[in-house]
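Before drawing any conclusions, I needed to go through one protein's amino acid sequence and its backbone structure tokens, quoted below without any editing.
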Amino acid sequence: MSSQKNQEKLNQKSWYLVYTKARGEDLAQQNLNRQGFTTYLPLVKKNKRIQGKYRPIIEALFPRYLFIQLDRETDNWMPIRSTLGVSNMVRFGAAAAQVPQSLVDELQLFTDEDGARPEVEKKYKKGDEVEFIEGAMSGYRAIFEKHVSTERIAVLLDIVGKHTRMLVSRHNIQIAS
């Protein structure tokens, strides 16, 4: 088959969503690819707390979801459900959930050499109200003052009517809701 005919055949395919088993995205992707399906698993680089320290990891951007490219008329969809790691196809009623090509293109656009998107850095502005989400101060609110380093920030905590400056891990706070 010529390259042009292969391209035309590929253009007839659409992206759909596969719902995987818990933490089964990689396994599902490997097994679907082994069967000849084209898949895409969006990944994100994050700093995650592991044994008390923040370490860089790569994980699924959408946990338990995987994109698969299929032709509604010519591809055999039957093996997908019984593939190791796959729970089911995502459906709206009887129809499989189709994903716009533009969304997949957008997700693929900002990936690095590892195939992952860098985590969006939280940018706080001086005066933003923040809330502690981890540690002994969890639930308390403070005022963001400035970035001290890549990992630490300065906040002003109201202690008995007086603002006290505290240096904390940027991972321990979020914008107050």
The helical segments are 3-11, 25-34, 78-81, 101-109. The first strand starts at residue 14 and ends at 20. The chain has four helices and 15 strands. The chain has a mean pLDDT of 88.
